[in-house]
Amino acid sequence: MPDNLIEQEKMRAEHILKSYNHMNCNALNISNQDLKYGLDFVQNLQKQADFPFLSANIVDESEKAIFPSHVIVEKNGIKFGIIGTSSTTIKLKDGLKVLDPFPIISKLTKKLGSKVDLIVLLANINYNEENKYLNELEDVDIIVQSGGKKKNHYALTGKDGKPIFVQIGSQGKYAAQLNIDRKFPQLSDRPKLLYQIAQSENQSCLRHIRLILFFL
Fold it and tell me: Would you tell me which of 114, 133, 144, 192 could form a disulfide with 181, CB atoms 3.0–4.6 Å apart?
């Protein structure tokens, strides 16, 4: 890509980050496309953000974490544990690695289980990885997938102890609104989940982070 276009993409990313700050974003999940201009650029953006950049399984060459694995957000008396992960199929620069997310998620859900009411997993994965996430992550309440190449967007209601699964597409073109019905008897019960998909024109080199969580 020509240098002038790279600079345009970087400037666009900075402007979109400012808009995320203005919208009181609570968490952002990092993946390979976000790192395509280098780790230094993303870490500089992170310093400008009013919210954490998350990744539980992107690490440096010594397998040391680069970003926080999770964040706890409390809204309207409900505590959400938000975890960020990426697919192991991605390729990264700067000597970065992607670890198997499942052992990491298992440890985090045990750690967060007594501290939060709901666990939300932000997963930048391919559509063919969906079943594995649904079948092996029963301690997660809601999985929000970004990065899928399919154009359809859907939600699968959690049954038999499985997570609620929401797919919102790729390239930063979509925003998802998750409405949690607080009428369920106990927080330990699965909430009724409604969702809406709205198209947005926002695109940048932050595309594929995709998951802007607004708990209003």
Answer: 192
Percentage of residues in the chain having pLDDT higher than 70: 70
Residue 106 belongs to what H/E stretch?
helix 101-113
Confidence of residue 141 (pLDDT cuts 50, 70, 90): confident
Length of the chain, in residues: 216
pLDDT for 175: 65
- Indicate left, alpha or beta for 155 from its phi (over 0: left) and psi (-120 to 50: alpha): beta
Global pTM exceeds 0.85: no
Distance of alpha carbon 98 from its chain centroid, rounded?
A: 15
Domain ranges of the chain: 3-199
3-199, CATH topology level: Purple Acid Phosphatase; chain A, domain 2 (3.60.21)
SS3 track for 19-61: HHHHCCCCCEECCHHHHCCCHHHHHHHHHHCCCCEECCCEECC
